[in-house]
Amino acid sequence: MTETVDVVLIGGGIMSATLGTLLHELQPDWKIVAYERLGDVAEESSNPWNNAGTGHAALCELNYMPQGKDGSLDPAKAISINEQFQQSREFWSTLVGRGILDGPSTFINSVPHMTFVRGEKDVAFLKARYEVLKDQPLFEGIEYSEDSRVINRWAPLLMQKRRKGEPFAATRVPSGTDVDFGSLTHQLFDHLAESGVQVRTDHEVRNLKRQDDGSWLVKYRHVIGRTPGEVKARFVFVGAGGWALKLLQKSGIPEIKGYGVFPIGGQWLKTTDPKLVAQHQAKVYSQAAIGAPPMSVPHLDTRVVDGEKSLMFGPFATFSPKFLKHGSMLDILTQVRPHNLWPMLRVAFANPDLITYLISELVKSHGKKVDNLRTFVPTARDEDWELIQAGQRAQVMKKDPEKGGILQFGTEVVAAEDGTIAGLLGASPGASTAVPIMLGLLKRCFPEHYAGWEPKLKGLIPTMGRRLNDDAAAAEKSMSETASVLSLTA
């Protein structure tokens, strides 16, 4: 007999963990089942070594505030991303207060966010960006300097043996954070399992089929023994990283037509040398190389994983046809459909610089990658840094009425018109904005429940529905209260 449940979550990452936690808080009587094809949750994009752990609040990421053709700077997107991260912080703070999450330092730690640029053009841009952001309430405390002594105090590794006469500048926001999304995901799923939610690892969802009554028949296979099974669900969330596209295609919903993804892998240079780690307490972002996608912006990061500090630099792009780190070599081919072939070809034709960038990255030796690091750390030595493999990112390609196809940056929810199934495509800022993304999904897919849920949601996220940046007092209150609960220090 086929099991019947209210909700199926596909994928054991931060998105499924966040949605599952929200739904369990809102409807504790609903039966929820989560499926993960690997032997544990948080083994793909949510794994701490598969992502940068940046609490993306647009404090240091230049691609969230690009310069217009006329030289103008619009802070709207940067403010929006910061607003979203504040919602995530409020939600995590509430869960810490309720004992659902462990001590804050197990998943979030204070790490200042910096931007460091060289050359007159980029220095002028960074200064203009600072002038725009310094009066925004959510960016309170941002500092700017072109003084080597000040920047040396902020991040000593950046300044050692720096060439004299070279124009450079930096901004710094002390309230930045490093987030271990792997630990956070584990804790959320542990709580769900303790609360009666079934978290089934080693289970691979193979197919999705809409039933006459509007529900979904979810067919899966137990990886160990290859035993098949199926479950019937009123709602399905596909949070399976790059494989979300494949599963949504199998569902047959028309909303997925025209979508394709291009997989981009990554590598990091990592060091645990105590002398180096002690000289760098920051996440430092810079400008992306020409042709590089936003997710490949170079940055030198302090990481805190399992209580241990290390430094990580990158990412360096790699290529694999797999949509997941543990995916299939046929992924890039099996996604092709008549409806998405032309958009994907148009993207390829329109982005030759991306192909050139990927090829240049693929031929880099370990030594050449350390050479790139030396633009941040002039004294870097090859032997102090090891190369580690990061996760796979599936860059979204979609149809466009004017261009035929475009490369879509960021994350995007694709949902059926009736709201019975939804999936998430894309990458950064992703995990940092999991809470507002899932709030949007709840509103879109459960319109008949949402109004009744709002009081509970506001109990979980007190400022939900408000624009903090429009109210300096509210912004300061939210940031200071969450900082206190999460044990964050500026």
TrEMBL record:
EC number(s) of the enzyme? 1.1.5.4
Q: In which pathway does it act?
A: Carbohydrate metabolism; tricarboxylic acid cycle; oxaloacetate from (S)-malate (quinone route): step 1/1
Q: What is the top-level taxon of the source organism?
A: Bacteria
Gene Ontology molecular function: L-malate dehydrogenase (quinone) activity
Catalysed reaction(s) here are:
(S)-malate + a quinone = a quinol + oxaloacetate
**Which coenzyme or cofactor does it need?**
FAD
Q: Which UniProt keywords apply?
A: FAD, Flavoprotein, Oxidoreductase, Tricarboxylic acid cycle
Pfam families on file: Mqo
Supply the InterPro entries for this chain: FAD/NAD-bd_sf, MQO
UniProt lists the family membership as follows:
Belongs to the MQO family.
Record PANTHER family: L-2-HYDROXYGLUTARATE DEHYDROGENASE, MITOCHONDRIAL (PTHR43104:SF2)
Protein known as: Probable malate:quinone oxidoreductase
Its source organism is Microbacterium commune
